[in-house]
Every structure is written in C-alpha cells, then in structure tokens.
Amino acid sequence: CVSVDLPGGMTVLVSKEKDKDGKYSLEATVDKLELKGTSDKNNGSGTLEGEKTDKSKVKLTIADDLSQTKFEIFKEDGKTLVSKKVTLKDKSSTEEKFNEKGETSEKTIVRANGTRLEYTDIKSDGSGKAKEVLKDFTLEGTLAADGKTTLKVTEGTVVLSKNILKSGEITVALDDSDTTQATKKTGKWDSKTST
Question: Alpha carbon of 117 to those of 61, 168, 191: distances in Å?
C-alpha cells in the first residue's frame, strides 16, 4: 500500500495493484473508524464508506485532485445527514450539523488563518446565533434569515458592528450613543479599500 496525506490531517492507504474489477482499494481510519472503498485512480481520490457501532453510516469523499475531503455521517437509513465536514488543502473547513428534519442546526467555518465563524441555534428560517473567534478575542452576534451575520463589540457608549453578507462582503459600522458632540466617536467604512 501507498500512504497519501489528505486535507484535514487524514491519511488514505491506496493499493499498489488494481483488483479483479480494475479498481484500486482505498482504506482510511477516521476517529477510530475503519473506512474502505475503491477508485479508478491510484492517487488517493475516491469514496470510502464505513459503519459506526450505532449503525449510522459514514462516507469520506476525496476530490480527484486531492484538494478537498468531504466527511459525512448519515443516520441508519444512509440518506438522512447528521453532519458534514468539508476540508480544503489550505486547512480551511466548513462543518455542519443537521436536525431531525435535515436542516442545518449548527455551522462552523474555520478559515486558513485559524480564525472561526460559528453559527448555533439555527432555526428553520435560517436565523440563529453567531460568534467569530479571532486570534485574541471573540465577537458575538446573530445570523439573520437572509444570511447576514452581525457581530458586535461594545465599549462604553461605542458599538462596533461587523456585518458579513451572505455573498461574503464585509462592512463595519461604528455607532456611539454619546450625546456630547465633542466626545462622540465616529467612523465610516469604505468597502472599496476595506478601511
């Protein structure tokens, strides 16, 4: 077997020879669970499957160019998603957990730089709580049904809001409830220069 490293810190073992059906055998161990599969290619790409002790099904899909892995856990029926994690080569990832109806209930986006955007308590309309974990501090806020994330930091009378639209566009707003003009803080965001 040949060992191939994958995004997400996983490793897949690929057989050196094709089997009787002309396929390469794939094996991987993820969270102490053994997954097996076959592929037309010998580079480590393909689909591996396994079953947990609670009879839930696990599927690992590795992109043809090894640029991403998709790790999915299904209920016993093999169709209803419980969770899904997509990891890219740059170590960024998106992990989703699903409720009984198959709707997203939690979502965590980890960027290549290690910062995280976490969505929890997501309701059927798409709204919920939001939290951004940066290197030295955490911003908390909300996820609106239209996909807009609003994160806020309050210091005295000043509220700094970071808004992330569904498109990924980021804007920042500064609001000060101080009524004295001489001490009131102001700021304006220029999306062209991101300043």
Answer: 24, 12, 21
